[in-house]
Amino acid sequence: MKSKRILDALLAPMVAIIFSVVLASVILMLFGANPIETFSKMINYAATPRSISLILNSATTYYFSAVAVAIGFKMNLFNIGVNGQYRLATAVGALVAGALTFPGYISIPIVIFVSMLVGSLWAGIAAWLKVYRGVSEVISTIMLNFIAIGLIAYLLAPSMLGVQTAENVVGTPVIPESGRFPGFSIPGSQVPVYGMLFLAALLGFAYWFILNRTRFGFDLRSVGQSPSAAVASGVNVKRMTMYSMLLSGAVAGLVGLPLLLGAQYSFTVNFPGSYGFTGIAIALLGRNHPVGIAFGALLWAFLDVSSQILDLVGVPREIIVIMQGVIVLSVVIAYEITRRVKVRRQQDAVGKATAVAQ
Amino acid sequence: MTGMISIARGNYSRRVKLFVILVSALALLSFVRIWSDVFDLTSRGTISAAIGLAVPIGLAGLGGLWSERSGVVNIGLDGMMILGTFGAGWLGWQHGPWMGLLGACLFGAAGALVFGLATITFGVDQIIAGTAMNILGVGFAQFFANLAFSKVPGGGETQSPSIPALPAFSVEQISDPLVAIHDKNIFIVSDLAGILSGFFYRLSILTILAATLFILTSYVLWRTSFGLRLRSVGENPKAADSLGVNVYRYKYIAVTMSGVLAGLGGAFLAIAASGVYREGQVAGRGFIGLATMIFGNWRPGGTAIGAGIFGYIDALQLRDSDGTSLRAMVLLGALILIGLAILAIKKNKYQTVFGLGLAGAVLVSWFLMTTALPKEVALVAPYLATLLVLAFASQRLRPPAADGVPYRKGEDR
Amino acid sequence: MIAVELSGIWKRFPGVIANSNINLIVEQASVHAIVGENGAGKSTLMKILYGMQKPDEGTIKVNGTTTVFSSPSDSIAAGIGMVHQHFMLADNLTVLENVILGSEPKRGLSIDFTKASNRIKEISDSYSLGLNPDDLVSELGVGDRQRVEILKVLYRGARILILDEPTAVLVPHEVDELFEALRGLKSEGITVMFISHKLDEVLAIADEITVIRKGTTVTTLNTKTQKVTAEELATLMVGSELPTPETRGSTVTNRVVLAVKNLRVESGQVKPHVDDVSFDIHAGEILGIAGVEGNGQSELVEALMGTKLSTGTIFLNGVDATNWSTRQKREAGVAYIPEDRSRQGLLLEAPLWENRMLGHQSQSPNSNGFLLTPKAAKADTQRIISEYDVRTPGLDVLASALSGGNQQKFIVGREMSGEPKLLIASHPTRGVDVGAQAAIWDHLRDARARGLAVLLISADLDELIGMSDSIKVLLRGRFVADADPKSVTPQELGNAMTGAKAVV
Questions:
Q1: Min Cα–Cα distance to chain A from B5, Å
Q2: Which residues of A touch B75 (CB under 8 A)?
Q3: What pLDDT score does C245 carry?
Q4: Which residues on chain A are in Cβ contact (under 8 Å) with B374?
Q5: Count of CB pairs separated by less than 8 Å, A with B
Q6: Burial class (CB in 10 A: 0-12, 13-18, 19+), B322
Q7: Residue C194: CB partners within 8 Å, gap ≥ 6?
Q8: Per-residue confidence (pLDDT) for residue C434, from 0 to 100
Q9: Residue-level pLDDT at C271
Q10: Which positions in chain A touch C374 (Cβ < 8 Å)?
Q11: CA–CA distance, C464 with C483 (Å, rounded to integer)
């Protein structure tokens, strides 16, 4: 029964991945590359210690982002604004981290807290607009993404709080040694793995626990499934909308921290800006389930990292982005179809059970 | 007969109202220009640049309008626009700008069809499908751009060789005298002349095409039976279905059209604005287009005005070397708020009056205390404006009633 | 001239016979009412006539010709139009746009608005519908919207009009206006088929009345040649054989569980949904609320549950609960069987055991207040399944997979768990088979004997009379009469509900 359930859950993503591999193979063949050779080179490349470190690092970042999105999804809220939330949160976090000279065990929790708070507040604007002004969170978060970019540029101007960094771009002061999040390394790799990987795992567990094991989580899910039933059951839908958006923003505040505290040590205007969209894709792929998201994040990171080899094979590595897009689109279609099939199958099963009982 | 008369009367009073609004806007702008002493506010260069910046946004917004009028929320516009820039670059570089235009339309439409397959046929959530569309658009354009441009002279992995230009028109006989009037610095008259002069100066044929498309859209969607059926599908698909309207077909047509328009917006960026395909040149304009459509209350005229405002602020910001134009914008914003507060007094909404008045006063004092404004303010102004419009006018906005709701024939949902 | 003739119509659904041997003759240019209780098979019959459903047996003749309808467009072509109870209108479009949609007059490429507008004016004037083609539908009242639907049908050339429960959504003066319009239609030679269960209204408008009971046509009466009273009609509708659900002996105590004073729910219009309602329910008492649907029952329930704003006071077991949230009320022992089970009572895409928690997620056995306790909840779900005979292969089945009757049994079982103090039950046995109905009644009786106070809202008059210790009649948001369940008959109650005659 249990293994059958897992198989059922894997069916849709498997179909989507296979479909995207087939499509990518066709594209590869059209351009004269051998798909089997190409994919095996990618896998071989990804299996090196260095690549594994890189994959784990990317996956950590993606995981935070996808969980942030998933918290919204569970309530039927689309937090398209993770991009803006984490960028602003990371920028402010970097400013705070750069200014603190406490030992790490004091300053790092402060930075994490500040970043979560900023992400939460930024998401809170969208939440407030939705609950009290009836503005769709889809549009407001998109607008807030752009506003965040402007706000960051303003904050980081050398006349304000920023400095000219070594690469001659505007950024925050470099975080002192003590404020950096320690990493660890895999044997044979020069690239350290983010220590925040463990925080991500912890977050995944907390997410699962709160959602599935607490009353709050039940309230939250019930609003996502049927607001009218939730109201009748005694849930305050407005309050839950606020809470879940604030939580989503708080988690979004973590997205940029692995990179900031584990590798770059400074937030510059060139800081990667679209992890939020990746998070949406991965949350969809993993069906908002903490384990599913973990696999999704690893798959995404694997595709990102292994694509580096493609240039050497003579295939533009952007084919990976096509694959990623195809995976997302086909996985949502596959989920929709399997959902309908499941409902029909259960109705049949109930019909049979009823017939026997009579 | 009386029906027609009352329609005509409706139009008449609306026209008067529009005229009053336009004249007061002009007077306000002129007043601000004189008080703040920023001559560039209504200069030919500013207006010309504003038009160029407004067109791609407007086309994306118009694309969104088509799609949403049929009940499909299309946040995949950005991806379709990116596909459009690639189509324009790929065909435009090899076969000239007109083929580029066609290529942009075709690529945009292809993206829209994939999006339509997911949302209309399979009934997938439209926001999710739109997000997937954006990822797909980026990937597709980057991959094929790399393939198509990296090995050709003048091209690169992320950039096409230059695309031959499309014709642009200047009517110096009209534009130049108008500039002369603008330079005379007369209240309202100079400003009107300056604005008009921009419309006769280096006007791309694509801009003219875009304007035509706006007018055509108004006509087709509001004057023909095709348009009525398309809109009815976005308002109440069940009712439309019960009267024999093929809901799926109209949604497909609308979404495809939306892709074509977004593609054209991309073509403008590639062909008219920069002369090359360049990675990232869309820069979120699909989303801004969506915002202008909402700002414009899902109507072509409103969308055009929204795009115009975005373009205008963007143009000022780009041309503003010392931050004075933006400072003038603060004054303009303050005056608009105070104006709205005065209107609210008439309606006895004192809370609103207080809020607007206070905000206006804050802006005025900001204007008085600064001499120049940071550039970032201009960067966020359009988005902030959209958010404010949504926050304070969302009751007055009228999106199609079935916007965003997947339709499944025969299901009670 | 006979406009419509139905003979020997049968329609069966899995487990139900909706129509059995229906015979009906409708004269041209007359208003022909079809009356029957909820669930008597009126709607199915009309869907058959409008081509939305195919009869299993029987023939349909329209204007003397035998016809077979496979879709509404066939019946539209035959000159039949239907005004649905739930309007099919696009709010953001004008009257004109709504009316011409799908059959627009054209001039060149454009819609010929002048022609359309003139035609609509013409129809509106000749049947005195009083509609302006350029008004937005969103700005129209319910009565006007209904007339837009009628206009839509007439515009397409219909000569036979089916109106499904047209007065259900109207206030009295709108009903009068509708009847005025219907008389106009009749005088222009149009045939009107009028489905209703409001007897006073039917008597006011109909030339002929056909009564349907339990899926079959009982009789047709002519109001001109025969003297018909609402009482007689009610008897015909309800029938004589009444398997009454009885409660033996009174368990009513003198301890007040629910005390409601001056409850008012505003509707945004002149008449409030619930208008100054006061009542007490004692421990061990079932208070039945009788009333035609749409007279404020839903709003009364929602106000009591705290999901709708209201004024007045609500005391629970002597404690002021006026400002309590829904959850506070639930935790204080208020159980709730909502009227719309799929929208309000269940998470359709969640497994049964999670649905066991719904509404009780803050209480044992589902949680300890903070953490959920799935094991205990699952065990209790199993108990409900066996005690309430819910037919399901297991606990992990999604709620949507169960049949309506089983869903309802599950909800009743859930709400009766944990010794509630007060049960608010809207149509607890609606859509449930006879066996399950009896079981639910048994459970209600047992709980009543243990001191449960029940507010029972039902359209099934036998159920109301049989189960209740006292009955109040709700009409247009007010209590208009009290009835003693020991002596009142369904006919008398039906009369009181429609305002035909007050019961003592």
A1: 37
A2: 80, 138, 142
A3: 64
A4: 154, 157
A5: 138
A6: exposed
A7: C31, C32, C33, C34, C163, C166, C182, C202, C205, C206
A8: 61
A9: 82
A10: 213
A11: 11
The closest CB to that of B127, out of A138, A150, A281, belongs to A138
Query: Which pLDDT band, with edges at 50, 70 and 90, does C246 fall under?
Result: low
Tell me the DSSP string of B204-223: EHHHHHHHHHHHHHHHHHHH
Give the tokens for residue B114. Answer: 């994939």
Q: For every one of its 358 residues, what pLDDT tens digit does chain A have, with 9 covering 90 and above? A: 567 777 777 888 888 888 888 988 888 888 778 889 888 989 999 999 999 999 999 999 999 999 999 999 999 899 999 999 999 999 999 999 988 888 888 999 999 999 999 999 999 999 999 998 888 898 899 889 999 998 998 888 888 888 887 777 888 888 888 889 988 888 888 889 999 999 999 999 999 999 999 999 999 999 999 999 999 999 999 999 999 999 999 999 999 999 999 998 999 888 998 899 999 999 998 989 999 999 999 999 999 999 888 888 788 888 888 888 888 888 888 888 888 887 777 777 776 665 543 3
Identify the bridge partners of residue C59 per DSSP, sorted by sequence position. Answer: C7
| Residue C196 · residue C21 · CB < 8 Å | no
- The shortest C-alpha distance from B162 to chain A (Å) reads 21
Residues B285 and B81: beta-carbon distance below 8 Å:
yes
pLDDT at B78: 95
Give the separation between CA A333 and CA A243, rounded to whole angstroms. Answer: 30
Chain centroid offset of residue A107 CA: 25
Are the Cβ atoms of C370 and A215 closer than 8 angstroms?
yes
C329 touching A (Cβ < 8 Å): yes
3-state class (DSSP) for residue B134: helix
A31 touches chain B (CB under 8 A): yes
Question: Which residues, other chains included, contact C224 with Cβ-Cβ below 8 Å and sequence gap of 6+?
Answer: C207
Contacts C371 to A, Cβ<8 Å: 213-215
Question: So where are chain A's domains?
Answer: 34-314
How far is B328 from chain A, CA to nearest CA, in Å? Answer: 19
Confidence of residue B411 (pLDDT cuts 50, 70, 90): low
Least confident of A135-144, A346-355, B256-265, C207-216: A346-355
The set of chains that have 3 or more CB pairs under 8 A with C is A, B
Check CB contact of C398 with chain A, cutoff 8 Å.
Answer: yes
**Are A213 and C305 inside 8 Å of each other by CB?**
no
Structure ipTM: 0.85
CATH top-level class of A34-314: mainly alpha
Angle of CA points B23, B29, B30, to nearest 5°:
90
Query: Does A288 lie at the interface with C, CB-CB under 8 angstroms?
Result: no
- What's the confidence (pLDDT) of residue B236? 94
Question: Cβ contact (<8 Å) for C403 and A225?
Answer: no
**CATH fold of B38-297:** ABC transporter involved in vitamin B12 uptake, BtuC (1.10.3470)
Query: Taking residues B90-102, what's their average pLDDT?
Result: 95
Task: Give the 3-state secondary structure of chain A.
Answer: CHHHHHHHHHHHHHHHHHHHHHHHHHHHHHCCCCHHHHHHHHHHHHCCHHHHHHHHHHHHHHHHHHHHHHHHHCCCCCCCCHHHHHHHHHHHHHHHHHHCCCCHHHHHHHHHHHHHHHHHHHHHHHHHHHHHHCCCHHHHHHHHHHHHHHHHHHHHCCCCCCEECCCCCEECCCCCHHHCCCCEECCCCCCEECCHHHHHHHHHHHHHHHHHHEHHHHHHHHHHHCHHHHHHCCCCHHHHHHHHHHHHHHHHCCCCHHHHHHHHCCCECCCCCCHHHHHHHHHHHCCCCHHHHHHHHHHHHHHHHHHHHHHHHCCCCCHHHHHHHHHHHHHHHHHHHHHHHHHHHHHHHHHHHHHHHC
| Chain-chain contact of C113 with B7 (C-beta, under 8 angstroms) | yes
